[in-house]
Specification:
heterodimer, A: alpha+beta, Alpha-D-Glucose-1,6-Bisphosphate, Chain A, domain 4, eight-stranded antiparallel beta sheet, 8 strands, B: mainly alpha, Rna Polymerase Sigma Factor, Chain: A, 14 helices, 0% strand, globular
Chain lengths: 155, 267
């Protein structure tokens, strides 16, 4: 998996049979605030400009339906594959998976990393049809940082 | 703490506790039961009170736990609760004769816009997830600090902050879309409609402008408008106000309607 600097800038690594996009950012907020934002499906469109909707319950083994601004007409049916509270969340389908990781790195500071890897034997056939994720990933990370830090500053 | 000291503290907290429980449950009967159950439970656990919090916080902790148990199986209300309940009231031939009788015979039967705003805020807050509703009421109406709410809800500070922020954002959005007092395209005109029925001689525009947040309807700071709503709620005791009998009737009606509505939608 790609290791990247926590600058909020996305990095994409292309290979013949896969493509991986990653973004990492440091957020001045407790992990549980970020975790709450990442696991409350109905609330996503309020703070995340890249998500049109998420239907379902983000919990281990559950299926969710996600619509992204990258392709609002398409509904992704995803399964929550890993769910470690305040640490790691993975959802995906047969084509790929998205991994969210949270790490405490100091005084109320959390490192957030999001990586999506898509691929498979048929990947070269449809690779050109999949839009780049970089901009959307950067907006996602920036929105999450903004929302979590706003919540954290609540008196 | 002696039993007498506790009873005295409980009686001081009782009016706030009662109004809090009414706003969470929307039921007079459940409120009375929960107040009583809280008193009994706290009395029997008096030896476990360690004075690490105020007695009031401890009482609210017990009451909130009992309330969560009471409401856990019940569906939350929908954001359009006032539309649903209005339609039900209009289709019930007994509804208006009943409320007019309260209005004309009770000393606490006046219709006041401010009280209706409080009633509306209660109804909309019941569309929030329960933890969020509890948090926002404790903070904005009953003036508990975040650290005290952490104790009452037995959760983390981070989660309380998350609940507060999320519930505020949702309520701002709901009122923005619905409330004609702050948005001329708002879909809910219930205040003006009811004021026209109960106070036909009043000029609604004049009355409206006596309400801070309606007067500041064009203020881009929508969070502040929400705070002004909560300020009104803070100042009204739902069991002892000029229109408490009328508003209690409204709230019980909405509770009954929404319980049936939830049941029907579950089938």
């Amino acid at each position: 998996m790609t290791t990247i600097a926590s600058t909020g800038s996305a990095v994409t690594t292309k290979k013949t049979f896969s493509r991986e996009t990653a973004v990492s950012i440091d957020i001045q907020a407790d992990k549980s605030i970020i975790w709450a934002l990442l696991t409350n499906a109905n609330d996503f469109p309020r703070w995340n400009s890249t998500v049109v909707s998420i239907d379902g319950n983000i919990a281990l083994g559950e299926k969710i339906k996600l619509k992204s601004t990258l392709d609002p007409k398409r509904e992704f049916k995803l399964k929550v594959k890993e769910f470690e509270a305040d640490q790691r969340l993975v959802w995906g389908d047969a084509m790929g998976k998205r991994v969210y990781t949270l790490k405490s790195i100091g005084n109320n500071l959390t490192n957030f990393t999001m990586v999506e890897k898509i691929g498979g034997p048929l990947f070269p056939l449809f690779a050109k049809m999949i839009p780049p994720f970089d901009q959307s990933f950067e907006a996602y990370a920036a929105d999450l940082k903004n929302e979590a830090e706003t919540i954290s500053s609540t008196k | 703490m002696t039993k007498e000291q506790f009873t005295s503290e409980f009686e001081s907290a009782r009016p706030h506790l009662k109004s809090y429980l009414l706003r969470i449950t929307a039921s007079i009967e459940d409120t009375e039961d929960l107040v009583q159950d809280t008193f009994i439970k706290a009395s029997t656990k008096l030896d476990t009170f360690r004075a690490e919090s105020t007695v009031k916080t401890w009482i609210f902790t017990i009451a909130s736990n009992l309330t969560k148990d009471n409401l856990r199986a019940k569906k939350r209300w929908t954001e359009n609760v006032t539309d649903i309940c209005k339609a039900k009231a209009l289709s019930n031939p007994n509804y208006f004769p009943e409320v007019m009788a309260i209005n004309q015979t009770s000393q606490h039967g006046n219709f006041e816009i401010k009280e209706h705003i409080t009633f509306c805020l209660t109804c909309i807050s019941k569309s929030l997830p329960l933890e969020q509703q509890i948090c926002i009421l404790l903070k904005e109406v009953y003036e508990f600090k975040v650290a005290e709410i952490v104790e009452i809800l037995q959760t983390s500070e981070a989660m309380v902050k998350y609940y507060l922020h999320t519930s505020r954002s949702k309520m701002v959005n709901v009122f923005e879309g619905r409330c004609a007092l702050i948005n001329k395209n708002g879909t809910c005109h219930q205040c003006s409609e009811l004021n026209g029925i109960f106070n036909p001689k009043q000029d609604f525009e004049v009355e409206k402008n006596k309400i801070d947040f309606a007067k500041k309807a064009n203020d881009p700071n929508r969070e502040q408008l929400l705070d002004l709503r909560f300020q009104i709620m803070k100042e009204i005791d739902p069991f002892n106000s000029n229109g408490s009998d009328l508003q209690l009737h409204h709230i019980q009606h909405n509770r009954d309607v929404m319980e049936n509505y939830s049941e029907k939608n579950e089938k």
